[in-house]
Structure prediction request, 562 residues.
Amino acid sequence: MNLRWLWMLFAVALWPGWAAALSTPCQLKETQYGSVCVCNSSYCDYLEQPELQDDNQIVVISSSKNGLRFTRSEGSFLDKNILEVKDHQWIDNNFVADAVVVEQNKVWLQFANVPQRFAINVNIKTVQLTVQREKRYQKITNFGGAFTGSVSHILQQLPKALQDHVYRSYFHADGIAYNSIRMSIGGSDFDLLPWAYNQLPRNDPTLSNFTSLDPRDLQKIEQLKRLKAVAKLSNLKIMAAAWSAPPWMKSNNRWTGYGQLKAEYYQAWADYHLKFLELMQSKNMTVWAISTGNEPLNGVIGFFFVHFMSMGWTPWQQAIWLNDYLGPTIRKSKQSQVLIFGNDDQRYTYPSWFRKMRTSRSTALDYLDGLAVHWYWDEIFGPHCIDRAHAEMPDKLLLNTESCIGDKPWQTHGPELGSWGRGESYMRAYIQDLLHHFNGWLDWNLVLDERGGPNYVHNYVDAPVIVNTTSRTEFYKQPIYYAIGHFSKFLPEESVRIEAITNETESFPQLSVVGFQRPDGSVALIVYNGENLPVNVALNDSQRGAFSLRLPARSWHTVVYK
Ligand SMILES: *[C@@H]1O[C@H](CO)[C@@H](O)[C@H](O)[C@H]1NC(C)=O
Ligand SMILES: *[C@@H]1O[C@H](CO)[C@@H](O)[C@H](O)[C@H]1NC(C)=O
Ligand SMILES: *[C@@H]1O[C@H](CO)[C@@H](O)[C@H](O)[C@H]1NC(C)=O
Ligand SMILES: *[C@@H]1O[C@H](CO)[C@@H](O)[C@H](O)[C@H]1NC(C)=O
Ligand SMILES: *[C@@H]1O[C@H](CO)[C@@H](O)[C@H](O)[C@H]1NC(C)=O
Ligand SMILES: *[C@@H]1O[C@H](CO)[C@@H](O)[C@H](O)[C@H]1NC(C)=O
Prediction:
């Protein structure tokens, strides 16, 4: 008997973590707007990373409107039969069929108690999907969400085991493998109150009272330590941004409204950022990147709509602050490795924001390592403004740093629990951005309560995970969580986008695709079917050959192979 094998069996049997590494299915629950996966202290759904056995194996991970959640199917490039991803049922606005059957390229509906089938009068479409690994584009850096004051506050109220499931669901490889968080320096609207460091004493440019971290940040740090341990994540990329300076530094002496940093405090505001970085470092929470400030236009034009902490910058003013104060302060310090991202505002400010910065300080943009964008108006403003900014600054990273649904007057302010449509909005947005040079995406609040808060100005929105703050015993993973997960879970840092194109016409494509080659050489394709009909996909990879798939209605998938 080989002793090494005996030892391994022994180790497996004794190691309690072993059972936890196995995949567990979603506990699907129907809700007002669709369905969610329910997690409690003793149960939550996870999916082990698919290991590819050989060069011909193909693994498809699927989620659908009708109830698939990270469901695994397998096939082989050697198999000439079509791999059909089977869905639970088929739901139209009017009725529910128990199955959708495709025969001789015609689509039929099957009902459990009715012997005959009903034909939908359509042929199933076949879409060619061509993958060329030789054509390579940008690399992935990070995926994550925001650890706001509200997130920290909600998590703190939960039993430890349930908190751990939140951390594991988001950051562990068996969850959706986030490697990054965004946090505010001081407060944001998703806090119980507005706050900043050194609110007192006033008119104190030496920041004499900013000598230690606020208890709210100390609580976050304890939670982040636990998060890293639970998720087995040694390198958490922390991105930080300030929403507002303490009011005494500002022209309007308020948290919100039309107000900018007073010129006499430009150095103090740079020092404030450095201080935060140093104090975080002293707690072993090294910050990976900062931005020049959250949504600078809120304090210049946005104050008609925005009533939470914000501080205005014009691009011309901000270029002066970055070039003459923040940039040199950071680069000459022991925190010089911290990346600096610019803009941190809506897509429609691209690329003009940076062009204007250049006119007031020609070297200001040299201090920027990356460009940060918020997604809120993406459905109105196309990606071409991003393409132009990228063409002008091709070496700078591009990150989406904030996204959520429910901020618009025409949207439900707060969660639409279980909404597949909201998940699809994310799916379309992630695919679009990744096709337009983006290196990663940081979503907004990791968790919120049933109302979409707490938020100190009642600016309630949706989140991928909603916590039951009434019972404090459950949380709900929404379709948005799985939409993001189809990217973040399967695209580790250093994955490279590769060419993956369909033969559909641009105007009304049924299928959207973005493809990547991962650091281990394997391919991951994210494929989205937005129609109420199944679709056949004729995949042809330049190195691996051809393979056929049938994907159900209203579904998204990650297709993985070597
Ligand atoms: C937790 O969820 C599992 C799976 O749905 C269920 O079997 C179990 O009873 C739940 N535990 C509690 C305490 O509700
Ligand atoms: C320092 O800040 C704390 C609040 O963080 C405040 O209670 C205290 O009064 C401040 N000290 C001075 C000298 O203003
Ligand atoms: C930070 O990490 C170092 C080295 O691992 C350790 O010696 C030190 O105690 C840690 N400090 C804190 C505040 O956790
Ligand atoms: C939260 O839990 C309570 C108590 O179990 C339950 O009545 C309520 O429906 C739950 N909320 C949601 C959104 O499911
Ligand atoms: C794409 O390819 C499929 C399969 O070859 C074909 O049936 C379909 O007509 C093509 N679509 C277009 C728009 O050319
Ligand atoms: C796949 O593409 C290659 C060219 O890269 C081509 O030679 C081959 O015929 C294609 N296979 C199928 C089944 O379309």
Q: What stands out?
A: Residues 27, 40, 42-43 surround 2-acetamido-2-deoxy-beta-D-glucopyranose (ligand 1) (CB under 6 Å). Residues 142-490 form a domain with the TIM Barrel fold (CATH 3.20.20.80). The chain has a mean pLDDT of 93. Residues 215-231 form the longest helix (17 residues).
